[in-house]
Amino acid sequence: MALLSARGLRKNFGGNFAVNGVDFDVGAGQLLAMIGPNGAGKTTCFNILNGQLKPTAGHVLLDGREVTGLEPKAMSRAGIGRTFQITQTFGSMTVLENIQVALMSHHGRLRSFTANVELVCADEGMALLERVGMAEQAKRGCGVLAYGDLKRVELAMALANEPRVLLMDEPTAGMAPKERVALMALTAEIVRERGVAVLFTEHDMDTVFRHADTVLVLNRGRIIASGPPALVREDPEVREVYLGSGRMYGAD
Q1: CA 182 to chain centre
Q2: Residue 154: helix, strand or coil by DSSP?
Q3: Residue 221 region, left (φ>0) first, then alpha (ψ -120 to 50), else beta?
Q4: What is the DSSP letter of 228?
Q5: Which of 3, 180, 208, 251 is the most exposed place for a label (fewest CB within 10 A)?
Q6: Domains of the chain, each with CATH number or no CATH
Q7: 71 phi and psi, to 5 degrees?
Q8: How would you classify the pairing of strands 57-62 and 4-13?
Q9: Helix ranges restricted to H, 108-235
């Protein structure tokens, strides 16, 4: 059974539909890539799925339960997490402190964030950092980390909330090719072992076709193709949409 489902999602702004009849399913341990040219409707769709926008029509289902129109905090409590294209970390805090804040928020313990912060959720935080390969940098400030390392910290922060579904908005944006491969390989490994469903947007097509189980292509708010990466890659309409854009086979 799908963990996250969209049925007939529509969102219009004035007379224009940014999202128009979007349907998909993504199950536990699966990665679904949502791609399309600028203005295709990807961000609007993500904003509907995590509660930042209410759809004009349609339904969002989490494990078969209606969650359409819930506020972002309620979506998060229900189990839908999100990472953003620009990392959302506290630069003045250490790597471990960032994870501790996320853990305390999840456990409803932010009022415990005192001078003894290093004692709160420290073991749990270190376990998460170990899993994403950042334990050795636990005491470093996030403000001095390389960008690829910041993305790993953000992944750990997202996992601290124990999401059942993770929405990842261009998770490898701004990263070097080797960093992209490493981060997405790590993400795929973790979400499969934890049974998390992942929906991600991405402009780098090498990343999409290497790691996605299913690829969904939007153009002007509508789905023009959906299926296994190999089939979507050869779809005539998809090739036409990307023709001349330089993106279909890996360039940004």
Answers
A1: 16
A2: helix
A3: left
A4: -
A5: 251
A6: 1-79+163-252 (3.40.50.300), 85-162 (no CATH)
A7: -70, 160
A8: antiparallel
A9: 122-131, 147-160, 177-194, 205-211, 229-233
